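User: Predict structure, ligand heme C.
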Amino acid sequence: MDSVKILSLVAMISVSVISRADELNRSPLALSALQGTVCLTANHIGRSISLVDVASGKVLQELVVGNGPADIAWVDESTAIVSLLHDDAIAVVARDKDRLDLVRTIPVGDEPRGLALSHDRKSVYVALGGDDTIAQVDLASSSVVAKLPTAGIPKTVRISPDGRMLVTSTAVPATIYVHDLESRQLISERRLFDGAFNPGVPVISKDSKLLVIPHAVNREFAVTPQMIDIGWVIDNRISKLPLPDGEPSSQKQLGLDIRGKAVGDAYAALFTSDESRLVVSCGGTHELLVIDFTSIPWPTGDPGDFLPAAMQKDASKFRRIKVGGRPMGMRLLDDQTVVVANYLLNCLQVVDLNSGDITKTISLGGPEEPDLARQGEIVFYDADRSMHSWFSCHTCHTEGHTAGQVFDTRNDRSFGTPKLTPSLRGVAETGPWTWHGWQTDLHDAMKRSLTESMATKHPITDEDATAMVAYLKTLAHPVNPRATSTDTVLNQKQELGRTLFSGKAGCASCHNGSQFTSNETFDGKVEDRKDRDSKYNPPSLRGVASRRRYLHTGKARSLEAVLTKYHRPEDLVGESLTDEERDALIEYLKSL
Ligand code: HEC
Ligand code: HEC
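Assistant: Predicted complex:
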């Protein structure tokens, strides 16, 4: 039996055990509500979905569906669809009153995340983060019938209420794509403002004319207490864009932060039914924002550093409701009540928007006490660990990966030498750490990240650092479909690339071992006169295709750019490659 088969067997066995055990954190990311009060949650870590009757506060059933449930949608009262981020598939689930059954899973492509159901309920659109496309899955034939190209890690898809537009948000760079569903043509492609990153879950107005999306903004100043205080490091904002298109000037942003008490990791947006109020969940500061949407003084041009003063002191215009944990997806129950999926608290919360009370907490199950890794995860997502709560580890290292942003965290003790945020997948195995490889102890690195990258005075204990390391050890590379491709042409290319990598191109002299890195430092010949040390620790090349910016400067935006412009084999080992060889080498890199 080959190793792939053994692995999938192990996965099957563990799934059936998990369906009975209660020890997994459920960590719901999203929920979908039917008319009335029946909800389904996508339990990201729990590998399951839960059918919940919010009125009675009961979990009616839980069903194990696969790895990494990320989004969920009802097709009708008896069918639901779940995206399985780590299985590269969607699951079709049947519901009969209180009972759920897994009908089938449909392979859809790399890293499926956001879902949207077509108005005729015949197909579902799936954002494929690893493929930079939106797959259209026909539910009758259970097959992918079309792929609409985007770029840059699509995360969410929405269909406008008029049923005519497919609206996609992508992460790197943060962009909104609008496709006409009838003609399948791309109607518009708009970048959110400069520096926008970590786009959250958007909402579209009922008349289909407006999109509102929360996101972070990289202000590009050094991470110092002075800069954080005045809001010049990472801001949290909502953007409003006319649909389907519009002049850049019609695109507006609103800063959400308050000096000394910012908002961390704004995630999902939701309108109340009359669209007078906008609710925003903020995972990092453990709260919901309730914003009077009708009276926002939308700034023209630059939104400034903070929430407009007129909104700061008036709770009817801007209210903050603490819910704890990590509030993520939300649904409206009625005009003053929302249900929130709380990832870190493993529960659904019912929140009264008028009183600010949590009127009900419905546990989805999970361990009584967080284990060490979960304790680390709690710190990882906690913006209150940063000065004035502007950001968390997750803000820069999104979900343990990377937001693809360049920051001047001054790790090498210099100013004005910003560096690309490394992915933390597999990080425990790739020491020494930081681009210059100056950090040889991960435990110490945690203390530095907590005190310096977060600029906090919050006391850091050894227990915190130990828990963080335990959490980092859980950050694995997702399954890479290119590594097990059955396409012969592709496989031949990969094979040629492998030969070049360890032969003529000389890559393996610096990128070696199981993680394709080294514990030494080298001059990667990347030109940047500002940096104070020309030596760098080679980044691990495992999962390299899942990054969209490369090298310490972040200037290379594709593997091709790395090898032709910034980190050229001719400069490194004195060998130049033909176009065909480079192409093969890149296919090999993508399979790692
Ligand atoms: C403001 C953005 C930002 C925040 C917040 C942040 N990091 Fe980083 N992190 C970076 C950047 C940029 C680097 C690269 C720094 C360098 O090499 O000079 C980095 C490097 C690292 C590394 C080394 C990775 C490697 O492969 O060498 C680890 C580990 C790490 N961060 C963990 C954390 C943890 C844990 C937190 C929260 C306590 C955190 N970071 C907060 C931006 C950030
Ligand atoms: C002399 C050692 C050395 C050799 C030879 C070398 N690399 Fe590198 N590689 C590095 C270093 C150091 C970096 C980081 C450089 C920087 O960012 O300044 C790097 C960065 C990279 C990156 C960017 C990864 C990321 O996540 O940003 C890629 C891709 C890469 N190398 C691929 C290759 C390939 C393919 C070859 C063979 C053609 C190769 N390297 C040869 C040392 C080397």
